[in-house]
Structure formats: C-alpha cells, structure tokens
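Example record

The entry below shows one chain as it appears in the dataset: sequence first, then structure tokens.
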Amino acid sequence: MKFKCVEVSEKELEDMIRQAPHMIEDGLQYITHQKKTNRGSLDILFVDSGNSLVVAELKVVEDDIMLIQGLDYYNDVSTNIELLARAYNKFKINPEQDVRLLLIAPSFSILFLNRCKWLDIPVSVFSYRCIQHEKTAEKVPVFNEITIPFVPVIEKPYLLEDRFNYIVNKESRHIAKKFLDEVHSWDTSNISSDAIKYAISVKFRGTVLCYLSPRRKSFYIGAYNPEGEWTSFPVNNKEDLENIRVLLKANIEKLG
C-alpha cells in the first residue's frame, strides 16, 4: 500500500479530530467546537478520561502566536468552568480539576516550546501529518506528542518573612506586616495566611479573602470589590488601607 503526505485546511483538521479524538489520546471525548469566548471562538473543547476539560487550539502551519490564542481561550474556560460543567453535565466534568491546554500543529519552533515550559498549567503539544492512500480520497491524521523542555526546580518552602522582605522600603514593609496582623485579629479562629509563590494568600474559612502582593517600595491588596470584580488596590501609605479595611470586613460578612 502506498501513502502520501497531504495538506489539509484547518476545518478539515478540526473535523477529523472531532470525529476521532482517541487518535490523540485514549479516552478523550469531544464536547463542542468553535465555541464563542470573549477572545474569539475556541477550536475544540474536550473532556479527558479523568473528567478534566481540555481546550484545544489547532493550526495547519507552524505559528508561535497560537500559544497566546490558546491561553486566551484557556483563561475563558477556566474562569467559567463551573458554568460549563453544568451546561455539559452529561460529560461528568469535574470543575475542581485544572483545565488542560492542548496545542496541535504540524511543527513547533524551539522558541515556542521554551515558552511552554514556563507555564504552570497542564499543557500538551502534538505535531501531526496527514496521510492519504494513493487509491482513495480518505485523509488520516497521525499525531505525535512533543516533549516540552523541563524547568530545573529547586524545592524550597515559601515563607511569610521572605515575602515581606521583598519590600525594600522599611515603612511599607512595616505597614504590610501590621496590616496582616490586624486582619488576623478580626477572627483568629477563621482567618489564616500562607506565603505562596509571589504573594501572601489570606483566607477566611478556607476561601480566599485577599492577596497581599509585595513590590519593592509598596504592596498591593487584591480582593473582590463591591461589584464582585477582582481588583488590585495599591498601598503606598496607611491612608490607602482605610477603604481596603472596610471592603475586606464587608467581604467577610458575605462569606460568613
């Protein structure tokens, strides 16, 4: 039997993948395609065998920009994961699991793969080629998973003191420490704080109340504003905390 490699349009590739997602990964199920988002239409939405949503971005040429597009769609799906889980309830989507990003193209540049390695989300990269038997018109895609380079990891605990010490301005560092102590004093039993990668996470009964994000000469408090939108508030002096204090106490009452 003789086969030849052939080119396909993005629509042809999308149709082939929708009809046979198992050719990429065993247990992968098609949910929908060309779904509208705030950043355009995502190519295909899948659910995998572990009940995680999978956002797929397809290209029929090598294109470094597809990573940005894929992340835009990933952000939209992750933000609305509970809504999507209800809308497509027959697929038993688990909204507590991380959404996956699946990128498919004929080839990928080294620059593209090096960018992928810095993403702290589940990313899978597949190259493909389409083959066709010389005596038939049927086109069949063949997929190959590409290994993303690994980032050397040095494991070390995140410490509150390290986050505070990132602030080189002594007065701002003092204000940040005092404010965190004050927030704890509002409810010592239910308010906790932990150092995370670039900030301090403050929780009320296990739900995030705010993030304290240090900067060299100041810091930011990230929290939901009265309209329910996540907002970052810069803190350069004690006076900047007055409205933040009122907001956080109101949010605690809502969570209470």
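Notes for this example: The longest helix spans residues 170-186. DSSP finds seven helices and twelve strands in the chain.
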